[in-house]
Each structure stands twice: as structure tokens, then as C-alpha cells.
Amino acid sequence: MKMNNRKSPLIKILAIAGTASLAVATSTAQATMLDGIVDQWTVGVSTIFDTTSITDSNGNSPGGVTIINNQSLRWGSDLGSGLSGLDISNSPALGTALTNGPALGNVSITHLNRPITGDTLRSLDILSTLTLTPLVPAAPGLPAQTLSFTVHYAETSNGDNPCADGGANGVGVNVNGCADIYVTDANSLNFSFFYDLDGGVGPLQNQEYFISFFELTNGLKPLSAAACAVAGVATPCLGFETPEQQDTTVQFASLITTEKIHIPEPGSLALAGLGLLGLGLHRRRRG
What is the pTM of this model? Predict the structure, then answer.
């Protein structure tokens, strides 16, 4: 998934947000009005495949890819186990997020890996539309924003040895034959936006927030140079490999903070699922 980490006076971010219920005491809401911080947000997300962006393994659009709907794709010729494909689940989603609280799991993407022949998926864009509305204290919502994220996919030859990722056939992720490769973008941290609780006419600061995106199931990892190359992207790249004849699901989450977060390795992104309150995040006033 490709995205640009740029400040915006509103929001230019992808959010993959899920359901949670977080109670906030009345005293907290009163304190918030004094310091200008939104403590709790209502988060709405709708994620779909951009079916006009699909490219198959021959460079055709959509070519050999069958569009079931904008959340379900299939491709290849059935060899008796069904077709390969991608599915988006739990979208649209509506939930709540606590500022400087834990990451919230939500939208999932599942890859169905089947033995097939014929044309396969090569790349496509994923569109995600986000709405953010202050819940505690209650205030008007920000305009909805939609971003496009590109993913790259490689359906590998099951019988190769070594496999396309450089690993041995019959071992690990290649246990049932060579795994297929899905690559996304690792630049998913600290997208900046601002909210002023008194609308710029009172003493409260125009508070800066950061939203970051994580994968909770530990499926997304740094891939080998060989795997990146076969997917047609530069090294380093972040993605997941899917065992043959299995369904692989990765679940995403979002996190809202008042400080930038710093996680040194892409493979550590799943740590956010444990919550970041213990990492010393604190509120920062902005004049």
C-alpha cells in the first residue's frame, strides 16, 4: 500500500479502525475542555478494492481477474481446489478510539491461495475512507477523506526449488509448495492532523494529533530481497507470504496519539496491538 506521510490542515490518512467500547468519566471530559485534547474519537472506515486499478499478470485490466464485488476478487483456472483470491472483511466499520490508548483491530484482508493455472492478479489499489468525530468531549466531525494504497502480488510456481522467495521448497511457509507473495507499504506511522475544540475563537490550542496503522496478527514482515524482486518492488519491502492451499488473514488496526511514535523495525509493528500506554506517550500542548 502506498501512501504519503504529509501534514494536512484536515486529514490525509488511511484508517483501518475497528470496534471497541471505552468509558471515560465526566471528570475526564471536564479536564479535556481545559487542556484542549480530544480524549475519545468515533472512527468510521469503509475499505474497498478499486476495481478500475486491477492489473493481471499479462498487464491487462482486469484481464484474468474476476470481480465478484468491490470487496472480493478471484483469479486463475480451477484445478479442483477452487480459485485464488482476495477478500476484505469487517468493512464498513464503526468504533471508538482513545487518544494515547491501545491500537484497535478492525478491517481484515484474506488471501485464498489455491493451486491454479492461467492469469493471476499482479497489482491493484485499495481505497479506504475515514471519518473522525470527537466523542469526549463531543464536537463536530472532520470531513471524510479517502486515500488510495497500491499493493503488489506475485503468484509463484509451486514446484520451484529454491522458491521465488529464495527459500527451500517443502520447508516453512513453502511446506505445500512455493508460497505466494503480497507486498504492501511500510510507511504507515505518524500521519498528522489538527483539531481545535473551540474552533479557533477561544483559548484552547489547535492540537496536533498523529494516527498510525498497524497489523495485529504478525503476518506483515520484512521480506527477502528475492521476494521483493519477484513482486516487482524495491528492497526493503514489507508484506506477507501465503502458504499454498491455505487461507491467510491479516488484521489491521489504528492508533491515535498526541506524540509521534517510534518503532525501529517494520516487523515490530504488531507490538502496537499490545497497547502503547507503557511507552511513555504523553500529551503535548501546542500554542
Answer: 0.78
